[in-house]
Amino acid sequence: MSIKVTFPDGAVREFPRGTTGTTVVEDISKSLAKKTVAMRWNGVLSDLSDALEDDGRIEFVTRDQPAALELIRHDAAHVLAEAVQELWPSTQVTIGPVIENGFYYDFARDVPFGEDDLRAIEKKMSEIIERGAAFTKEIWTRDEAKKVFAAKGENFKVELVDAIPADQNIKIYKQGQWFDLCRGPHMRTTKDVGQAFKLTKVAGAYWRGDSNNPVLSRIYGTAFATKEELDAYLHMMEEAEKRDHRKLGRELDLFHLQEEAQGSVFWHPKGFTIYNQMEAYIRRRLNGSGYVEVKTPQLMSSKFWEASGHWGKYRENMFVVPDEVPGTEEEGPVLSGKSDLMALKPMNCPAHIQIFNQGIKSYRDLPIRMAEFGCCHRNEAHGALHGLMRVRQMTQDDAHIFCREDQIQAETEHFVHLLYSVYKDMGFDQIVIKLATRPEKFGGTIERWDAAEKALGDALRATGYDFEIAEGEGAFYAPKLEFHLKDAIGRSWQCGTLQLDYVLPERLEASYVAEDGSRQRPVMLHRAILGSLERFIGMMLESYAGKLPTWLAPTQVVVATIVSEADEYASKLVKQLKAAGIRAELDTRNEKINYKVREHSMQKVPLMFVVGKREAEEGTVSVRRLGTEGQKVVPSMDAIVELMAEVQPPDLKRAAA
Fold it and tell me: Which position among 146, 377, 400, 624 bears the catalytic label?
């Protein structure tokens, strides 16, 4: 019996049933076979050694292709686990997935690993890679797998076998004598991993993420196809550590977080200045783009969230509270447990429909662009929180566009052009757009989803921007566009979104009167540009290493004196600067000027006006700019006028031009 194999160029060839991918690629080209590490069979990434039993399409994956990077990291995790057990045989291995930018493996041992152990493990990994043992797959029975792992003392693996659904095979991958429970796929041999890897840190982790379970020792690592890519990544990580927004937040006195308010930000005056400037900027951009601003409640009944569909799909991420007055008796219960439930809003969209539903809307009224700087709460796990980047309380530059179907393309184009303009103002010009499609758990019908995905894709094509497909990553109620921007050190951040939603307007009975007098459902476009203000500010701090553009800097200029005779003149200058709308501070401390300059440079203040006795007599200032050598002496009013132009936000500069 033979099967037909279709190649990427459309060519079709016949092979005996049961032929492996290895045989096929070797038959095609010996040189290609040397580079190929895996295959896609009917679109599924698979072991090259898998037997081909039916007709299908094949695509070969070489080690230098982006698709191979996940395999390199997956195999590196297996090599890590083998290295650890060679060095410390009594260690139990648990799970070792690929994650963004690398991989990790969790281990159970009496003594946690230390940073010093990583170098020894790396050396052993290099040895294992050079052995070049083949990855081979075996299918075991459930009982056999449990028996073998139990005999080895691998109790965590026994538990994992029990967790595998009954209709799934128990796959075991071997590399030489060492083996592990794994879904696969893998490359050909350990040598395919290469030597461009690095173990990065050790951390503690609960087994299966449950604080009631044992604490394991987690080793993180990364791997790339080439040494050059690894070096570039490690350099980026070094830069990222220097730029960590949490570190900058402390050093620049911008904000802090504390255990008593997990995931909520305490903004200090300087940090809140940045926040307010960012909000004022985006508010002006929205006002200039035809948006109306609203404000909706923080706390709403669970019945409201049941109607929207969030109660069933999103409840684990919501803060739920009883609708009752707590008991005050010392001996009595605080809560009765009998009251109706309410929830803090995790998003603004259902509340915006309530505003839309007030009064009759005509087709002539659409589109309605409704914006809100809505404070939202999401019940993130404590371990997932990360400074400003992942919080429980956030404010979004959120808005919803209610429109007719024939307006989708124009509204999408309008939004995309606005988004690109905002990002350019913020200093970002490298943007990748992804269209995230229907997830496994979704609301509405497949037909509605297909229509929404097509409409959104067609509209985006009309803007002229390229985009990628992010399969299965849409919101539960709608497909979405994701806008990923690159920062100064090459990291990608997903900030803006646009979601096309037919489901929520139907669930919450939104309607308008069409031209023919019939009642129609509006299309709802959920959209944000900055996303969460907290996260965007954190990203800006890291991209700019704390040295924000002058219009955003909390302190835009410091007037510092060299001698006390200049104090009165400096004080007068600060008053003039503040009257001109410039955020200025006065430094008349009895310190040497070099000390003052160094200190304010560390605080990332964009400019300093240094004044001494001579400047006071002549009405001048010595201007020092952050990050540059030297200074220039100019008349004080000239310096103020020049700075007035520099501190203008970019949108206001354009308006004044």
Answer: 400
